[in-house]
Write a structure and sequence with these properties.
single chain; 58 residues; 72% helix
Length: 58
Amino acid sequence: MRDSTRRALERAAELTRNNRLVDAMALAEPVILAADEYESAEIRQWLVEHADDFTREI
């Protein structure tokens, strides 16, 4: 996965934790849609491994 993709996903997780889901989706959606099939698989795996990043409290 590209570093820029990982950073976007991490930022989206942060925004989601701060109750800014619309902003998180606006950030993550274009990155996810632009991914090729290999990066998409990496994104799916990252999301599975980091699901708590979107819900836990800091």
